[in-house]
C-alpha cells in the first residue's frame, strides 16, 4: 500500500490480554487521513485499550497497529511524534496558569523557550482561552479544563489526535465547545479517533463509526448508513381500538415489518424493514382510504442509540441486524 492511500490509523488482528481479561481480540480498524472516526462500545468493550495500543502506551500481544504509517512497536518514537492524546482525565498542573501549562508541554516537546511561549499564545487565542490564560487552572470550570487539556495535545500540531471520552461529565455548553474544537481540527486536516459514551457526539462529529464489543469490531460504517440498517419506527394511535386490525394492515403494507398492537393504548407500532422509508403523508392517505381515524401518527427515524442497542443488546430490532457490513463479533 502506498503512503498516499495508507490509512492514518490502522489495526489488523490486534489482540491484548491483561491476565485473564481479553481486552482486544482481533480488532481491525482503518481510519483515512483527515477524517473523524467514532469508536463506540459498552464499558469494558476495549475502546481505551485500543487507544493505548495506538498511542504506544501498551504493546499488542498479536497483530499489527500503525499510526501515520509507523508501526507502534517497531517505530514507537515516530508514532509519538505524530500524535496528540487527550485522555479521560485532564493531565494538567492545577497550581500554575493555563499559559504555563502549555509552555511546559512545549518545552517537553523541545520547542525551546521562545517557541513554547509563542505556541502557547497561539493556542490560547485560537481556542478562546486567551482571557483565562494567566489564571490558575484550579479556578477553571470543568469545560475550560477539558478544552485546555485538548489544546495541550496540539502543541506540536500533530496530524493524528486521539480523544478518549473528551466530554465525560461536561455540561451541554462545555460539550458543544469541545465539539466545535474537534470540528475545527478535522476541517484543518487532522485525523481524529474519538471514543465516547455519548452517541449524539459520535453522530455529530464522526465520518465513520466503529462499534466495538468484547474487544472486536462488530459494525462499521457512516452514521447514516448504520442507522438506515435499523429501520424507522412507525406508530399510529387510533380513535377506535376496534380498527386496530385495519390500521395494522395499512402500516405493515407500507413498512414491511411486523405490527405490535396495544389495545389499551389504541396503538399499532411497526419497525420498518431496513432501507425501507415510510412517508408520513402517504401513511395518512392510506389510513384515510381504509377508513381508519387516527388520533396521532408518527414516523421516528432511528438514532445511533438504536444502532448501539441493536448491536450490543437490549435491542428493539431483528436479531439478524446485529452484525452489519459483514463484520463478525
TrEMBL record:
Major location category of this protein: membrane
EC code(s) of this entry: 7.6.2.2
Topology class, membrane: Peripheral membrane protein
Swiss-Prot/TrEMBL keywords: Antibiotic resistance, ATP-binding, Cell membrane, Membrane, Nucleotide-binding, Translocase, Transport
Residue span(s) of domain ABC transporter: 9-239
Localization per record: Cell membrane
Sections of the chain in a coiled coil: none
GO BP term, example: response to antibiotic
Record-linked NCBIfam families: drrA (TIGR01188)
Family designation: Belongs to the ABC transporter superfamily. Drug exporter-1 (DrugE1) (TC 3.A.1.105) family.
Name of the molecule in the record: ABC-type xenobiotic transporter
Amino acid at each position: 500500500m502506498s503512503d498516499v492511500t495508507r490509512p492514518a490509523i490502522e489495526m489488523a488482528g490486534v489482540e491484548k490480554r491483561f491476565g485473564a481479561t481479553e481486552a482486544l481480540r482481533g480488532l481491525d480498524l482503518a481510519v483515512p487521513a483527515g477524517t473523524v472516526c467514532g469508536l463506540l462500545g459498552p464499558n469494558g468493550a476495549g475502546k481505551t485499550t485500543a487507544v493505548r495500543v495506538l498511542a504506544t502506551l501498551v504493546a499488542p500481544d498479536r497483530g499489527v497497529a500503525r499510526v501515520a504509517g509507523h508501526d507502534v512497536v517497531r517505530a514507537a518514537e515516530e508514532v509519538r511524534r505524530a500524535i496528540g492524546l487527550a485522555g479521560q482525565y485532564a493531565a494538567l498542573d492545577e497550581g500554575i496558569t493555563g499559559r504555563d501549562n502549555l509552555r511546559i508541554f512545549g518545552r517537553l516537546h523541545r520547542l525551546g523557550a521562545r517557541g513554547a511561549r509563542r505556541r502557547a499564545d497561539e493556542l490560547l487565542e485560537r481556542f478562546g482561552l486567551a482571557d483565562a490564560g494567566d489564571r490558575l487552572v484550579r479556578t477553571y470550570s470543568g469545560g475550560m479544563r477539558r478544552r485546555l487539556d485538548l489544546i495541550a495535545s496540539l502543541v506540536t500540531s500533530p496530524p493524528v489526535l486521539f480523544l478518549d471520552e473528551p466530554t465525560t461529565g461536561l455540561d451541554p455548553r462545555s460539550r458543544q465547545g469541545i465539539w466545535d474544537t474537534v470540528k475545527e481540527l478535522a476541517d484543518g486536516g487532522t485525523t481524529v479517533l474519538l471514543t465516547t459514551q455519548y452517541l449524539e457526539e459520535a453522530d455529530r462529529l464522526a465520518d465513520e463509526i466503529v462499534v466495538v464489543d468484547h474487544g472486536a469490531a462488530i459494525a462499521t460504517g457512516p452514521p447514516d448508513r448504520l442507522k438506515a440498517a435499523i429501520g424507522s419506527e412507525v406508530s399510529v394511535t387510533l380513535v377506535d381500538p376496534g380498527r386496530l386490525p385495519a390500521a395494522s394492515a395499512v402500516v405493515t403494507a407500507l413498512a414491511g415489518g411486523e405490527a405490535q398492537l396495544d389495545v389499551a393504548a389504541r396503538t399499532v407500532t411497526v419497525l420498518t424493514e431496513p432501507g425501507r422509508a415510510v412517508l408520513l403523508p402517504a401513511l395518512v392517505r392510506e389510513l384515510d382510504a381504509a377508513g381508519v381515524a387516527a388520533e396521532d401518527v408518527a414516523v421516528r427515524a432511528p438514532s445511533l442509540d438504536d444502532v448501539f442497542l441493536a448491536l450490543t443488546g437490549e435491542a428493539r430490532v431483528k436479531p439478524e441486524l446485529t452484525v452489519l457490513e459483514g463484520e463478525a463479533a
